[in-house]
Amino acid sequence: MKILVPVKRVIDYNVKPRVKADGTGVDLANVKMSMNPFDEIAVEEAIRLKEKGIATEIVVASIGPAKAQETLRTALAMGADRAILVATDDAVEPLAVAKILKAIAEEEQPALVILGKQAIDDDSNQTGQMLAALLGRPQGTFANAVTVEGDKVIVAREIDGGLETVQLALPAIITTDLRLNQPRYASLPNIMKAKSKPLATKAPADYGVDTAPRLRTVTVAEPPMRQAGIKVADIDDLVGKLKELGVA
Amino acid sequence: MQIYTAPLRDMRFVLNELHTDDGFGDIPALADFTPDLTEAVLTEAAKLCQDVLLPLNRSGDEEGCTLENGVVRTPKGFIEAYKAFTEGGWNALVLPPEWGGQGAPEAVGKLVEEMICATNVSFSLYPGLTNGAIAALTVYANDTLKQEYLPKMVSGEWSGTMCLTEPHCGTDLGLLRTRAEPDGEGGYKLSGAKIFISAGEHDLTSNIVHLVLARLPDAPKGVKGISLFLVPKYLPDAEGNPSVRNGAKCTAIEHKMGLKASATCQMLFEDAKGWLVGEPHRGLEAMFTMMNAERVGVGIQGLGIGEAAYQSAVWYAKDRLQGRSLSGAKHPDKPADPIIVHPDVRRMLLTMRAWNEGCRGVSAWVARALDAEKHGAEPEQRQRAADFVALMTPVVKAMFTDLGLESASLAVQCYGGHGFIRESGVEQYMRDARIAMLYEGTNGIQALDLVGRKMPAEMGRYLRSFFHPVSDFIEANLEDPAIGKMVAGLKRAFEALQGATAIIAERGMKDPEEGGAAATDYLRLMGLVAMAYCFAKASKIASRALMSGSGEAGFYKAKIDTARFFYEKLLPQSASLYLAIKAGKGSVMDFAEEAF
Asked: Where is the Sigma-54 factor interaction domain (chain A) (predicted)?
């Protein structure tokens, strides 16, 4: 079976983001970029399914700037087989990404699409769900454990109260949560091999999708500085303060 | 606190921007290693070093290695780290593809080595010694030995050692006593004691391959009677798997000042089965193949520790609030200013930074030459590269390790009293850095190698491989509006170096003690000029990048500012070194021995 894993190039999770002086967005000039950590978990899960002999081919796809090639190469170095770059300089939104992924899925016919539950740059948490709806396929989001059994996949999902187990008929959509696995380090021989693995470059128009943003960013600002706390004398004082603030 | 993020931007700079016109040309054999591939390699190596090796640095130092019933245990986590390291293929980065290596350029390999040494220099010894042994076996071993041992050593399944030193014989290998008798089966029986054997015994690999210097029964006295033998811990069976335990045992592990997670062993060979590597009585030559490659590697240890010390000190200097800036409070909202506001703290931080960037520039140049020596297309190109490597090896080894210790000491100084406390992490850098000035030939021996062997070699041909590019650069750039002032400084330092060379050549011819008395100063002077050259070139590239509106203004501006600090505050040492050399041996040798 084939697995499709979409990956996004985002600001590195170690970097402290800074807002552009004019408030139009986050400053990405010369900032370290890497693969969205949730997508790394998705790639790792696909590779583990391949190592178990369940998956036969892993296709990774990215929709974004030409530089997203590096992110795809990272996925190839981890162990994916081939890559598709849908190159666009637009700031793509979840719906446009989901539409492009739908077209890729129709072309590639993967039994599983494994996505990160959200990207750490905009934290949308929408693409996987939208893709499932557009394709009319079952979805197992926030996966904590994934087991493929015949033509079904069992997904333990992280929910507020603990874990919920769902069984989905393949083909299906999965989005990964943080505790699904620990992504591997790419080995040196695989980094070298990744260079010669196939990487196809496409444009959104090839899939008939218009990526023009539907949302307008009004302004982007740093979160307000955290205020210092105050010491309270006793419980009554605490309750009084909470009432004052209107939270109790 | 031990802080380290691989300086990937500067590494890319020295790899792809700084030495493009070094005269060693494009090396077709290495064309596969494009910038985007090396970028992926460096990024992943940095991840492994930062996430796996760095967390084991302090715990490994606290725990150390233990010996019980002849079995050495490495500190907690080392087995897993070694597994991750070798499974990732990192030990084989620059090793030959015919034996399973990745064949990457030394220019990339040395940068990865720097990261490994910065994050865990003790760990670096285990794969490091193996690579040295592989280098000697690749050149001198016969095909049977190669087939039997190289694939498993290249994969990291087995490790290697080099056994030279004996209790009574360190620098002077002519005194060596370990004996090898033919066993009548084409092999030899080795008997003798060795000390200071890094990775002589440990629990990371299923077999350990010792390369041992010993004397055959008919051996002439002195260094011309030493042969090299391969002695495995376990003799391989017919399938090549470790089977019978050989008579090579660890009798003790040394109690050391630093480098505690590296098992430094006393080894006893008792009728240990071994095989001759190379020709009888020619062992020293084979060992020096290994030794020369190792010396550049030891220099990189100094650089790695210097960088880790710098980053740890910067973190502290920004974090530690104490007193106020001399020119008035810089952070009135806080109870005190961070100590980075103080000129003397900044002097220390910039000194470390300049040493690190300077050394990285020089080592990238030498690494380019190592690649050109091996893979250069033209014989003339290979020769020039070999000359340059031979000349610079003692400089890299001695100067980098001296400066590594200096940086570690400055980091302790930045921490104040806390630097002296183990938990601060920086005192470990000082203890770990100290050994690099001693092993693989003390820094004094490196200076003698430079002055006694390398300087006069081939009527000064080695020297010309360095002097010519520097004088060409000075001539071409004295009038450059951006760096002309810097180049004038380079010119003065270079003239001091030329002057010192002439003095030593003239006096040393009549009296070798004159060369000996000047050697250490001369080595540093040459190293300073090499760094000055790299900084001037870097500033030229950086100012061009800034003029063309580079998006990386921060990086390039800092490059120029670091160069300026180097030129104004550190390079002036070249003038005093020249004067000390010029003063000659008198004050050193006239002093009465009984007055000491």
From this structure: 58-239
Provide the token pair at B497. 């170096």
Structural domain contains residue B144: no
- Domain residues for the domain of A95 are 2-245
Closest among A115, A108, A111 to A148, alpha carbons compared: A111
Alpha helices (H) along B439-552: 443-448, 461-477, 484-510, 512-547
| Rounded Cα distance, B369 and A138, in Å | 59
Contact B44 A77 (CB under 8 A): yes
Cα dist. B271→B235, B238, B265 in Å?
Answer: 13, 21, 19
Looking at the structure of chain B, the number of domains it has is 1
As for how many domains chain A has, the answer is 1
CATH number (domain holding residue A34): 3.40.50.620
Residue B214's DSSP bridge partners are B227
**Following DSSP, what letter does each residue of B87-100 receive, concatenated?**
HTTGGGTTS-GGGT
CA distance B103 to B55: 29
> Which chain A positions have a beta carbon within 8 Å of B52's beta carbon?
185
Q: Is there a domain that residue B489 lies in? A: yes
Classify residue B553: in a domain, yes or no. Answer: yes
Task: Indicate the pTM of the whole model.
Answer: 0.92
Residues 63-102 of A with CB under 8 A from B: 70, 73-74, 77
Determine the structural domain holding residue B474 and report its residue range.
449-590
Quick check: B467 pLDDT over 80?
Answer: yes
User: Average pLDDT of A192-216?
Assistant: 94
Smallest Cα–Cα separation from B470: which of B439, B501, B429? B501
Quick one: pLDDT band at residue A227, thresholds 50, 70, 90?
confident
What is d(CA A7, CA A64) in angstroms, rounded to the nearest whole number? 10
How far, CA to CA in Å, does B277 sit from each of A121, B210, B226, B228, B287? 58, 11, 11, 5, 10
Question: Does A218 contact B at CB distance below 8 Å?
Answer: no
Q: Using CA atoms, how far apart are residues B588 and B467, in angstroms rounded to an integer?
A: 29
Q: Give the model confidence (pLDDT) of B539-572 as tens digits.
A: 999 999 999 998 899 999 999 999 999 999 999 9
Angle at B423 between CA B422 and CA B426, to 5 degrees: 65
Question: Which of B37, B87, B88 is closest, CB to CB, to A195?
Answer: B37
Instruction: Please report whether residue B221 resides in a domain.
Output: no
